[in-house]
Amino acid sequence: MKILLLLASFLLIFNFNSIAQRHCGSTEYAKLNPSVSYREISGNTFNAAARDTFSNEVITIPVVVHILYNTSAQNISDAQVRSQLKALNDDFRRMNSDAGNTPAAFKPFAADTRIEFCLAQVTPQGKPGSGIIRKYTNKTGFSLDDAMKFSASGGDDAWDTKSYLNIWVCNFSGQALGYASFPGGQADKDGVVIQYDVFGTTSKVRPVFNKGRTTTHEVGHWLGLKHIWGDNSCGNDGIDDTPQQSGNNYNCPSFPRMSSCSPNANGDMFMNFMDYTNDDCMNLFTGGQAKKIRSQFALNGKRNSFLNSVKCDSSMLESGGVLPTQPETKPVTAPQNKPVAGVQIYPNPVNQYLNLVAINGFELSGKFITLSNASGSVVMQKRIVSNTEKINLSSVNAGIYILTVTDGKDKKVLKLIKM
Ligand SMILES: [Zn+2]
Questions:
Q1: Segments making up each domain of the chain, as ranges
Q2: Which long-range contacts (CB under 8 A, 24 or more apart) does 334-343 make?
Q3: Which residues pair with 10 in a beta bridge?
Q4: CATH 3.40.390.10 describes domain 18-308
Q5: Alpha-carbon span 92 to 114, nearest angstrom
Q6: What distance in angstroms lies between residue 231's CA and the mean position of ligand 1's atoms?
Q7: What spacing in Å lies between the alpha carbon of 99 and ligand 1's midpoint?
Q8: Distances (CA, A) of 248 to 199, 229, 261, 415, 417
Q9: How far apart, in Å, do the first and last CA atoms of the chain sit?
């Protein structure tokens, strides 16, 4: 009896450990799909004007979350989804509240990647949306076979993966908490899969994965990062400022955690988002990882198309470029069905001549327009003398611009793409 009890408790402990330790399926997925995960995209099928990143540009990635549920528990709340977006933004901008836990020896390497995420406000059809899709599935669990990415197999089809980061949240059977496709993979399978109860920081998330770091880790893969130990004993992750370590770390070691190939007394960077430690143990990306991530957005980078994705911006709805309210303006107090004064611009994207038209009583005449590029530099300023104006933009380089119309009191801000 004693032996049986001992055996039972051993099995319990073993089972508990296998659940409570982080496992990520991305490496296995890449091995299962070598031609998918690392394949070069042939040809440039992206029509909008490509451009390089600006040095300090903050890149915003529109996200669509596909919630696939078989039970009500799997149908996670909007609040849980939003808490994950906040965690992603905090972690990638190094605004995470536990950034102070990075050991002093590693603090000089910690970096703000200048990548942000938003729930998409515009659907691929140009309709308003919340960036959250809920869909019942008769599948009780999903695996690495990508079934969750296709409606035909109980999942939900990806939105255009050149403009949206697709995240499928579902019951992901097995040990792994999630997996990601690496940049350059097959378009309709591109994105990140996350187990529903480790997504976000509120509601139904389970310890010890309740700080949203599974998604931070998987999005790190989606942006080209490897595991910090290079998926080999004393392997190489291709990043200069992450120390070599013999393997992954589980749970939360104490600093310094030495391993057989530690280059110095600081040992493993086990608190890096690309290790396997618990959520409340992780707290940084490095400058080298930030550089690698940002290289995906450069000209010819696999994620370059996101520089032209404006799916976070509801002014890009198919009805036209009307943008009545902006964060900079005062809240609209008028009833919602009352037309709001504003500026309409067309065409957008624009090749040469941009038309500005005042609508619903807005006074355009006498205001100044300022055209700024994504890094905030002003490329054009002009005083408007009538309520309809045609501006020649042929001398402006291709890219995304912010157009501000103001007289110092009233201000309208619009996003503009120059082809
Ligand atoms: Zn991983």
A1: 18-308, 320-330+339-418
A2: 342/412, 343/405, 343/412, 343/414
A3: none
A4: yes
A5: 7
A6: 9
A7: 21
A8: 22, 6, 13, 44, 44
A9: 77
Q: How far is the CA of 27 from the centre of ligand 1 (A)?
A: 7
Domain 320-330+339-418 sits in CATH 2.60.40.3080: yes
CA–centroid distance, residue 225 to ligand 1 (Å): 9
How far, rounded to the nearest angstrom, does the alpha carbon of residue 39 sit from its chain's CA centroid? 21
Query: For residue 318, how far is its CA from the centre of ligand 1 (angstroms)?
Result: 38
Res. 148 pLDDT band, cuts 50 70 90:
very high
To the query of whether residue 218 is one of the catalytic residues in this protein, the response is yes
Over residues 57-106, the pLDDT tens digits come to 999 999 999 999 999 999 999 999 999 999 999 999 999 999 999 999 99
Rounded CA-CA distance 83/65 in Å is 13
Q: Which helix (H) or strand (E) holds 372?
A: strand 368-373
pLDDT at 25 over 90: yes
CB within 8 A of 357, min separation 6: which ones?
343, 344, 345, 346, 364, 387, 388
Average pLDDT, the chain: 83
Residue 306 contacts residue 59 (beta carbons within 8 Å): yes
Range of 19-33, 34-48, 65-79 with top mean pLDDT: 65-79
Q: How far is CA 70 from the centre of its chain?
A: 26
Catalytic residue among 28, 57, 116, 218: 218
Q: Which two tokens stand for residue 296?
A: 């995906």
